[in-house]
């Protein structure tokens, strides 16, 4: 059996990793080297690009907002690019608070992050539905990402794994891997205290839980949310499993 590593050692992206190998409820494993999640791809080195080409990555889905993607644009040879912009609410709210003279504290930052995740559920269904449409088109290797690969990307990864039947416990474990992998941008200048930056540039279980609680409370659970808001009806869910879960052993 091949020994696959989940996190890939790239110089220009610190949070690039494989969603393969996780077990679904029926015992099948998510296929390796088909679905990747990452921070932004604008700083990849030539060696990084060569590694991605070797993996056969053919599709990139970008959740960054318009200003983010314009500031750090990229183009990868032989990779089809699709922008599904989700504007960064936390950044905007933080700016508004600063202009109003309101101090940003760690507890306030946590609440802002939780509000952001709830907004993913209510306000960004079209973007996440489009991700599933891409996944269902074919099984050529695909990477989806935002700027840090932790919030918009983290919720997207949770939806994909849950749709494939992976348990919430394992989904949360994958989500929290960001804290051991993601490197904050070098030379980042901010007037915010370090305790606030540690909230904004890291992930907490409470963030993803806020989104999943909204899914449960407002939409009747993950399966109903996937079906009624993201278009993942029974046939689509079955097709997703056919494409991205290993077949049962004979």
Describe this structure in words.
It comes from Diaphorobacter limosus. Its EC number is 3.1.3.48. This protein has a five-stranded mixed sheet, covered by helices on one side. The protein is globular and about 60 Å long. Strand 3 (59-62), helix 2 (66-71) and strand 4 form a beta-alpha-beta unit. The chain is of the alpha/beta class. The protein has twelve helices and five strands. The chain has a single domain (17-239), classed as Protein-Tyrosine Phosphatase, Chain A (Alpha-Beta Complex), CATH 3.90.190.10.
Q: What is the H/E string?
A: EEHEHEHHHEHHHHHHH
Question: What is the CA–CA distance across the termini?
Answer: 16 Å
CATH architecture: Alpha-Beta Complex
Mean pLDDT: 94
Task: Please bin the fraction of helical residues.
Answer: 40-55%
Beta-strand proportion? 5-15%
Structure summary:
This protein has helices at 46-55, 66-71, 89-99, 106-123, 125-137, 152-163, 168-176, 178-181, 194-200, 205-219, 222-228, 234-244; strands at residues 17-18, 35-38, 59-62, 80-83, 142-145. With 250 residues, it is α/β, with parallel strands linked by helices.
């Amino acid at each position: 059996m091949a020994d696959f590593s989940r996190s890939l050692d790239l110089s220009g992206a610190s949070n690039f990793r494989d969603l393969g190998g996780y077990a679904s409820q029926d015992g099948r494993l998510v296929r390796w080297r088909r679905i990747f999640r990452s921070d932004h791809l604008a700083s990849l080195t030539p060696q990084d690009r060569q590694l991605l080409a070797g993996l056969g990555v053919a599709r990139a889905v970008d959740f960054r907002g318009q200003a983010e993607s314009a500031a750090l644009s990229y183009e990868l040879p032989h990779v089809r690019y699709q922008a599904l912009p989700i504007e960064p609410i936390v950044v905007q709210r933080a700016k508004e608070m600063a202009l109003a003279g309101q101090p940003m504290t760690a507890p306030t930052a946590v609440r802002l992050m939780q509000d952001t995740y709830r907004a993913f559920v209510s306000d960004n269904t079209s973007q996440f539905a489009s991700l599933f449409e891409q996944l269902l088109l074919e099984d050529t290797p695909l990477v989806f990402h935002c700027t840090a690969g932790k919030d918009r990307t983290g919720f997207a990864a949770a939806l994909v794994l849950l749709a494939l039947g992976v348990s919430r416990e394992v989904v949360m474990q994958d989500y929290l891997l960001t804290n051991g992998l993601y490197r904050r941008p070098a030379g980042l200048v901010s007037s915010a205290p370090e305790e606030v930056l540690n909230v904004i540039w890291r992930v907490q279980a409470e963030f993803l839980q806020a989104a999943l609680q909204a899914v449960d409370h407002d939409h009747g659970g993950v399966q109903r949310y996937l079906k009624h808001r993201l278009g993942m009806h029974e046939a689509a869910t079955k097709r997703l499993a056919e494409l991205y879960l290993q077949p049962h052993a004979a």
